[in-house]
Design a protein that fits this description.
35% helix; 12-stranded mixed sheet; globular; 559 residues
Length: 559
């Protein structure tokens, strides 16, 4: 049997085209691309403005079942489908998120796809890339510094230092920084208070960058950030500290989408990267809307399973940006069905049709949920070599019983040649015009009812439960004029419940909302459910232990 190359070995052997040639495929003039080396470029704000009058292409969402340690391959399928659509003669491009360094060195790995369905340069994409995340981190922490500096120099705004809600961020998993004390060490260092860090991808600045339409909108949203409250509980905004202008300057280049290519030299925008379990989990509105103006088909993904990523894609991103998806692809694997059916990871290689059938309940729930938004669904079975014909057929039969179709996809091993059937099916659905998209709840529904609606209709729980202090906080925000905002559920990605070990399709569970945060600039209310952390920790054996430079100075160990 031929040796299976690692993702990074495949990426390193890629026959990349100069990025200007990739831009030519989309009709982007050379002077409107700002190159970062030979294989990456940012698209100018001027060009983005110039195509706004173009007709929109068709938007395809790729989502998945609840992730398992077996791996579902959602980004791999997104990239593969983009290549597959180009292969069958469609002008298609891919829009995905940038990778966070924390999970890269932790457990999850990168975000460039895998096998022969990757975006390159994979190593740059999974490390510093074009510096967008550094810019977001710096802009966020500038605001943090300005808050403490303002308090130090007399606190003219009357900030109650016990009610500073703006935490600091860094793009690394570091549990030691979740809760800290700052300004210790005497008079010269300011007034001591409790503070903490979130990971950069959970920053409201990240969410704002990904939801803003242009630099003017970005600056307004940054100014709208609530950083603290006074003793009378009135809010203090970033614009009160005159922070919005300088933050926008730091984010000027980060606002421009990054153009790269797939292994098959098809164009891809990689831009922005909010986490899906603690933020809204979609790439930037600017990248997606620009792609729709210059390609006939745009394939994008939402993070983790459809209960998190797709719900937020529909209820936050599509609602805010006026997007209407033409079709959705739910990625699933035989291995994951077996895990949801109770099989341990080490036993996944053995055929077990009954476990596949049992685990399909999780897939069925996601199919039903996506259809609730009026978006037609097709299932992509991401193929693994250990899958047997009988197991694959069991999945296909189950999906057919749900009124959808499951298509076996071999893009990981064969690139676009292994995903043509899915590409054709996606075109058939998109061209039929059967999508009747609408969000799950109306803007005017009260905030706690919105949370409850997601819990009952998407997670199939009995209800959301919250302390009086949480409900009072939501009522106060409604009175302050924030009641029409959508909700962003921060919850474990591994289950429909808040218990990561409860697999399959549980019903009747309660979902505890232990904290709510107002992201006034981004334009949503975050509901933190169960034990979810906005600053992840590293696992016992972090991926970083295997990442190094080889004798040729090439990077090894990224995946």
């Amino acid at each position: 049997m031929a040796e299976v190359k690692s993702d990074i070995e495949i990426a390193r052997a890629a026959n990349k085209k100069p990025i200007m040639e990739v831009g030519e495929k989309l009709g982007i003039p050379h002077e409107q691309l700002l190159p970062y080396g030979h294989d990456k470029a940012k698209v100018s704000a001027e060009y983005i403005q110039s195509v706004k009058g173009n007709k929109d292409g068709k938007l395809i969402l790729v989502t998945a079942i609840n992730p398992t340690p077996a791996g579902e391959g959602k980004t791999t399928t997104t990239v593969g489908l983009g290549d597959g659509l180009n292969r069958i003669g469609k002008k298609a491009m891919v829009c995905i998120r940038e990778a966070s360094l924390g999970p890269n060195f932790g457990m999850k790995g990168g975000a460039a796809g895998g096998g022969y369905a990757q975006v390159v340069p994979m190593d740059d994409m999974n490390l510093h890339f074009t510096g967008d995340f550094h810019a977001i981190t710096t802009a966020h922490n500038l605001l943090s510094a300005l808050i403490d500096n303002h308090i130090y120099w007399g606190n003219e705004l009357g900030i109650d230092s016990r009610r500073v809600v703006w935490r600091r961020v860094m793009d690394m998993n570091d549990r030691a920084l979740r809760q800290i004390n700052v300004s210790l060490g005497g008079v010269a260092n300011g007034f001591p208070r409790e503070a903490g860090f979130d990971i950069t991808v959970a920053s409201e600045v990240m969410a704002i960058l990904c939801l803003a339409n242009d630099l003017k909108d970005l600056e307004k949203r940054l100014g709208d950030i609530i950083v603290a409250y006074r003793r009378d509980k009135t809010p203090v905004y970033a614009r009160d500290l005159k922070a919005d202008g300088a933050m926008t300057v730091l984010l000027k280049d980060a606002m421009q989408p990054n153009l790269v290519q797939t292994l098959e030299n098809n164009p891809a925008f990689v831009h922005g990267g909010p986490f899906a379990n603690i933020a809204h989990g979609c790439n930037s509105v600017v990248a997606t809307t620009t792609a729709l103006k210059i390609a006939d088909y745009v394939v994008t993904e939402a993070g983790f399973g459809a209960d998190l990523g797709a719900e937020k894609f529909f209820d936050i991103k599509c609602r805010k940006a006026g997007l209407k998806p033409a079709a959705a692809v739910i990625v699933a694997t035989v291995r994951a069905m077996k895990m949801n059916g109770g099989v341990k990871k080490e036993d996944l290689g053995a055929e077990n049709v009954e476990a596949v059938k049992k685990g399909c309940a999780n897939l069925g729930r996601h199919i039903e949920n996506v259809k609730q938004f009026g978006v037609p669904v097709v299932v992509a079975i991401n193929h693994f070599t250990t899958d047997t014909e009988v197991e694959i057929q069991a999945m296909k039969d189950f999906v057919a019983s749900q009124g959808s179709e499951a298509i076996l996809c071999k893009h990981w091993a064969k690139g676009s040649a292994g995903i043509e059937d899915l590409a054709r099916k996606v075109v058939e659905i998109a061209e039929s015009g059967s999508a009747q998209f609408s969000p799950l709840y109306p803007d005017e529904m009260p905030l706690f009812e919105k949370i409850n609606t997601v819990v009952q209709r998407i997670y199939r729980g009995s209800e959301a439960i919250a302390d009086k202090s949480v409900r009072d906080q939501l009522h106060a925000w409604e009175k302050a004029g924030y009641g029409n905002l959508p909700v962003c559920m921060a919850k474990t990605q591994y289950s429909f419940s808040t218990d990561p070990n409860l697999r399959g399709a549980p019903t009747g569970h309660t979902v505890p909302v232990r904290e709510v945060r107002l992201s006034a600039g981004a334009g949503f209310v975050v509901a933190i459910c169960g034990e979810i952390m906005t600053m992840p920790g590293l696992p016992r054996v972090p991926s970083s232990e295997k990442i190094m430079l080889n004798a040729k100075g090439e990077i090894e160990g990224l995946f």
